[in-house]
Amino acid sequence: MKTLFDCKDEIHSCSKCGLCQSVCPIYKITGNDCTVSRGHFIMLRGLINGELKMSKTINRYLDLCLKCSACTDFCPSGIDVVDIIALAKAEYFRLNKTEKLKSGILKFILNSLHAINKLKALYFKIFPHKTFEKRVIYFGGCGGINNSVIQILNSMNIEVITPNFECCGFPFFVKGDMETFKKYMEGFYSVLEKYGDYDVVVNCATCEKTLSSYSKWHGRKDIRIKNVFEYIKENNLSLELAKPHKVTYHKPCNLKNFDNVKYILENTKNLEYIEMKDYDSCCGLEGIANIKERKIMSKLFSAKHENIRATGVKTVLTSCLACKITLGLFSWGKYKVQDFVEFLAKNVK
Ligand code: SF4
Ligand code: SF4
Q1: What values do phi and psi take at 317, rounded to 5?
Q2: Distance 77 CA to ligand 1 centre (A)
Q3: What is the domain class of 239-347 according to CATH?
Q4: pLDDT, tens digit (0-9, with 9 covering 90-100), for 91-106
Q5: Cα 145 to Cα 123, 165, 236, 272, 293, distances in angstroms
Q6: How far apart are CA 209 and CA 190, in angstroms?
Q7: How far is the centre of ligand 2, averaged over its atoms, from the C-alpha of 322 (Å)?
Q8: Minimal CA–CA distance to 200: which of 239, 161, 237?
């Protein structure tokens, strides 16, 4: 697997133009160059050239990155900061016992979730579906199989196969535990091999982005990963809610195609969509884990919370399990955060 040292050219391609500063949510709060891509790359260049050694301080700055990719989308050199930060974290992970312990605990939690999800998968196997026109494989990730996704896809005459997949491995990737990330990736491919060549449908934006990156890390052929919203748009599924609802939407950083989601938000009858300010700014999940940086992170969460409150709506929709949990934690009971597909399945006529 690639290491930080393989990214030397990419890191050197940073022209230090500083454009990343204008979009980085953390830099906007700290004003510190070490917390944004430009500063990260200066430090990493030092590491690669042997002028600096990996340290707690460098790791602190890497941890402050939310992995939101806002700077990547804006960078004239097109540098993928999230990949590079993960590989830099892998260097710290290699040297640090505490990080390994934390990763072991996370693995234990996710394995326990997987055992519960196994039972859900069994349920859907026992109760067979009717005959459909098309067949897809559904990847539920840590959230397990969501009946709402099946309901929506079935309504478009699409049969949904529900293998018992584990986590996509994203939590380990961003922490630099590349060995565990690789194991999840291999687990995914071995489950997929049993089911044949169908589109893999996901509902969570982070799972979508991670599965789409597998071929880059694993070297195997691309898998066709599609978000459930692409199917709704492609099939011109006309949706109508049983009664009027007013909602806003938080765009997860990892969501590839917001146009599909926006199309559904704007074309579902009885659904009024109010766009919040900075609807695409990061929810700050990485910040939750970063309890040492409470001051910085509380500014980030307060801004999101205020933007939601300013819309005056009581329902916030999103399409990523991690965003749903993060926004829910900071809602202080003022609004409800729901998965968009779940919301649709529950409220359509
Ligand atoms: S926008 Fe890209 S090229 Fe410019 S300083 Fe930031 S990382 Fe470097
Ligand atoms: S990924 Fe997001 S938080 Fe990290 S440096 Fe880029 S803009 Fe800042």
Answers
A1: -105, 150
A2: 7
A3: alpha beta
A4: 999 989 898 998 999 8
A5: 10, 9, 24, 28, 34
A6: 19
A7: 17
A8: 161
